[in-house]
Amino acid sequence: MKINIIYCLTDRDHRTIYVGDSRGRVFSWSVTDQPGRAVADHWVKDEGGENCVDCGVRFSFAERRHHCRNCGQLFCSRCSRFESQINRLRILRPVRVCQACFNILRAQQMSEALEVSS
């Protein structure tokens, strides 16, 4: 997915970075004093997505938005039905992820398991 960045701002304390793209979506990341010890806020704002990133279904009262806990993009319930732990964010219990992230995380976990066993 290609994102054309229109603007990049920080808050007054330089702890949150906001990036806007040409489609009107806003992404934000939190900066911490303890890198690697706090989970970064990297979710797309609800207002930043009208449709599922994967299948394109329009969100409504009946079709809710769901965030992939790994990439932060907005998906419908069908496209975000997968679950995985996310080691880099220190999320050790299975949480909602999209199919692309599920495949990536599963491959990483299998690779890590092979390294440990050899």
From TrEMBL:
Name recorded for this polypeptide: WD repeat and FYVE domain-containing protein 3-like
Lineage: Eukaryota, Metazoa, Ecdysozoa, Arthropoda, Chelicerata
Positions of the FYVE-type domain: 46-106
The UniProt record lists the keyword Nucleotidyltransferase: no
Alphabetized SUPFAM superfamilies for the sequence: FYVE/PHD zinc finger
A family per Pfam: FYVE
SMART domains, alphabetized: FYVE (SM00064)
Organism: Limulus polyphemus
Keyword Lipid metabolism among UniProt keywords: no
Sorted UniProt keywords: Metal-binding, Zinc, Zinc-finger
InterPro entries from the UniProt entry: FYVE-type_Zinc_Finger, Znf_FYVE, Znf_FYVE-rel, Znf_FYVE_PHD, Znf_RING/FYVE/PHD
Gene3D superfamilies attached to this UniProt entry: Zinc/RING finger domain, C3HC4 (zinc finger) (3.30.40.10)
Highest taxon above the source species: Eukaryota
Gene behind this protein: LOC111087648
